[in-house]
Structure to design on (196 residues):
């Protein structure tokens, strides 16, 4: 009696999907724990400051540059950010987010392959300085946690500029890079956020 290959393929696909879902849940638990810690620390800082800081939630989109553009056309995600004033026009920042690198078809010597999507959880801290009334420069650094098995952690850095519109709306453009073992994945990103 032989093994039905189509049935074993279904079992492998199902177990692979369960494994990916389990890894996703573990990563989301870490992200929620981290966001809870950031919110708690930020709330504590807010309570101690007469000026107070501001949270913002934002939608992010990025265009891959460098080697990353060979396997992806687009990055989409979101983030939670906190800005705390430390001097006139100067803020320390903390952010945590989720980015999905959208894979594309890539041509290899062996044919065309579809590169799968990859998820990254960037966590960064930095400084924001207002150069003019609503125009600012910002620099952040931290870690980028890759959610797939064996993805590990990369050093993240992101210099950028932005503009704060009235009513809590904010838009910023940045160059963001994730570096690990001599390789760098980078993007030009846009974040549109709402402060509260």
């Amino acid at each position: 009696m032989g093994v039905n290959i189509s049935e074993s393929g279904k079992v492998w696909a199902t177990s692979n999907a369960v494994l990916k879902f389990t890894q996703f849940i573990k990563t989301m638990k870490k992200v929620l724990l981290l966001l809870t810690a950031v919110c708690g620390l930020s709330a504590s800082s807010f309570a101690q400051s007469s000026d107070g800081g501001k949270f913002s939630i934002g939608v992010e989109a990025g265009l891959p540059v460098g080697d990353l553009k060979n396997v992806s056309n687009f990055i989409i995600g979101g983030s939670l950010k906190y800005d705390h004033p430390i001097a006139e026009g100067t803020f320390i920042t903390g952010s945590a987010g989720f980015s999905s690198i959208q894979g594309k078809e890539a041509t290899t010597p062996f044919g065309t392959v579809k590169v799968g999507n990859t998820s990254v959880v960037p966590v960064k801290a930095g400084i924001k300085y207002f150069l003019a009334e609503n125009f600012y420069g910002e620099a952040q650094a931290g870690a980028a946690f890759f959610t797939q098995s064996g993805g590990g952690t990369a050093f993240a850095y992101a210099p950028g500029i932005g503009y704060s519109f009235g009513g809590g709306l904010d838009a910023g453009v940045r160059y963001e890079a994730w570096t690990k073992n001599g390789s760098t994945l980078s993007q030009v990103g846009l974040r549109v956020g709402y402060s509260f």
Notes: DSSP finds one helix and ten strands in the chain. The first strand starts at residue 54 and ends at 65. Residues 1-14, 44-50 have pLDDT under 50 and may be disordered.
